[in-house]
Design a protein that fits this description.
Strand content: 15-25%
Number of strands: 12
Structural class: alpha+beta
Helix content: 40-55%
Distance between the termini: 53 Å
Number of helices: 17
Order of helices and strands: HHHHHHHHHHHHHEEEEHEEEEHHHEEEE
Length: 481
């Protein structure tokens, strides 16, 4: 290999990965800054001017972000078109094995981002609410059925009692939509399923109890279905006597999306490679009590790994953007207040899904490091013989190999990077409540309360027909710095 070729090759590699230390959040700083400041029109303009992103390895996130900003701007049909693109991409995603192979020589960002499990569910959450704003209940019910199917598919991936495999809030949302469409039987079933998941999975995994609003919804739909036995059972379980004169009225279901979900950052662990005997190298980190055996068939490669001894492996982690507002209420014109209740801790679910695959991330990271070092060893080679026995050409070849191996090592270190891509426009948490409305125009106020008791107000006006359920969602983008 000629020196000019070597230099050109590595200059190209170093240029390609010169921004390898930047996280996905930092790379998209212009969009994130506009979005977080509430400049949604400007954020949309940034996306529209970067259409190439919709054809690259993070296209899932481009589609999803377009869906969010268009929904916030009231472009519900356009929003759903983008969200559907993201959903179909996640559903039809197929692994590119050439990219997977390349990831072991570079880093995981060479692979197309398929989306996290909870991100797939949130796509359908946004789609459902968009259809409800358009008063297209049948389309919203279609999304309900897709939600159910996707939940079943995700559930099949996980085994064990401590896995995130069922979503209480999504079942709750399904019940709300079924009830709004007049299907109180399926609504009751969905509410009951939601209750079970809150009481079991969510209580244990996220320390999140059953919203009081869900209890009322179960009692109401049991009454409307004529399920006297179930109504009596849940009245005793909840310690609530249902007001049988409170059903069949027009209402507002208000979803308050509070704060912003976490962003992926990077952390790294140093491993020591020890000779494990019998063809094994063991990667050890005593601080975290990690020990991973790795089998090698080539004794020379094993020697190279144990000679180097120290490896740095990069992994993704979540960096929280904590909620600024501590709580919120909806106040009606007659001064009645209705507390927004926590239905989904998106932030906690994001952490859980990442934690569940951390062992897999560790294994992949170590395999990536071993593969990179194997390439270095293969380039270095073994010319053999003493310096006196080598010809001039052999010594030059050996020096070239040593230099090339060193450059590969530099590039390997520079490109060791975790995959920090994730959907960064989703909320930290989702709250909701029901508010009784009068027929006609109703003025209500969202009051958000900050850490020092300071209150911010946002006014809304809703026109309700007889026995209509009106829907609205509002996203408070402020975060605690």
């Amino acid at each position: 290999m000629k020196n000019k070729t070597v230099n050109t090759f590595f200059i190209g590699l170093l240029t390609l990965f010169s921004f390898s230390c930047a996280t996905y959040y930092q790379i998209n700083s212009e969009f994130n800054q506009d979005f977080e400041m509430g400049n949604i029109e400007a954020a949309k303009k940034v996306l529209d001017q970067n259409k190439k992103a919709g054809r690259k390895k993070a296209q899932f996130l481009y589609f999803a972000n377009q869906g969010v900003v268009n929904s916030m701007l009231g472009n519900y049909e356009e929003s759903n078109e983008w969200l559907e693109k993201a959903y179909l991409f996640g559903e039809d995603y197929t692994k590119n094995y050439a990219n997977i192979a390349a990831s072991f020589l570079v880093n995981p960002t060479t692979i197309t981002y398929p989306g996290e499990d909870h991100e797939h569910l949130l796509l359908l959450y946004y789609k459902s609410l968009n259809y409800l704003k358009l008063k297209d209940y049948e389309a919203a019910l279609v999304e309900c059925r897709r939600l159910n199917l996707r939940l079943s598919e995700l559930s099949d991936r996980y085994k064990g009692d401590n896995k995130y495999k069922r979503d209480a809030f999504i079942h709750n949302l399904m019940g709300i939509i079924y009830e709004a469409s007049g299907d109180v039987n399926n609504a009751f079933i969905a509410y009951r399923n939601s209750l079970d998941i809150y009481q079991t999975d969510y209580a244990k995994l996220f320390n999140l109890g059953v919203p009081d609003q869900l209890k009322q919804d179960i009692l109401r739909t049991a009454f409307l279905n004529g399920f006297d036995t179930e109504l009596d059972f849940y009245e005793k379980q909840f310690g609530i006597t249902y007001n049988r004169n409170s059903a069949n009225r027009q209402e507002l279901v208000f979803f308050w999306e509070n704060g912003l979900g976490p962003v992926k950052d990077e952390w790294s662990i140093n491993f020591t490679a020890l000779d494990g005997g019998d063809g094994f190298v063991t990667f050890v980190n005593e601080d975290y009590n990690f020990s991973f055996p790795y089998q090698l068939s080539d004794p020379h490669q094993k020697q190279q790994l144990t000679d180097l001894r120290l490896f740095r492996i990069a992994f993704p982690k979540y960096k929280d953007r904590n909620e600024f507002y501590q709580r919120a209420v909806i106040e009606t014109s007659d001064r009645h207040q209705y507390k927004l209740q926590l239905g989904e801790d998106v932030n906690a679910i994001a952490h859980k899904t990442l934690d569940e695959r951390m062992f897999k991330e560790l294994t992949k990271g170590l395999l990536r490091a071993a593969t990179k070092k194997a390439v270095e060893a293969a380039i270095r080679g073994d010319v053999g013989g003493s310096d006196k026995e080598k010809t001039k050409e052999e010594r030059q070849e050996e020096a070239l190999r040593e230099g090339l191996s060193l450059l590969v090592g530099v590039v390997n270190a520079a490109t060791e990077k975790a995959d920090t891509r994730n959907w960064q426009t989703i909320p930290h948490s989702i709250y909701y409540t029901r508010v009784p409305l009068n027929e006609g125009v109703n003025d209500v106020t969202l009051k958000t309360i900050g850490p020092k008791g300071q209150t911010e107000k946002v006014n809304f006006s809703f026109d309700a027909a007889r026995n209509e359920t009106v829907f609205h969602m509002y996203h408070s983008l402020e975060t605690a710095r």
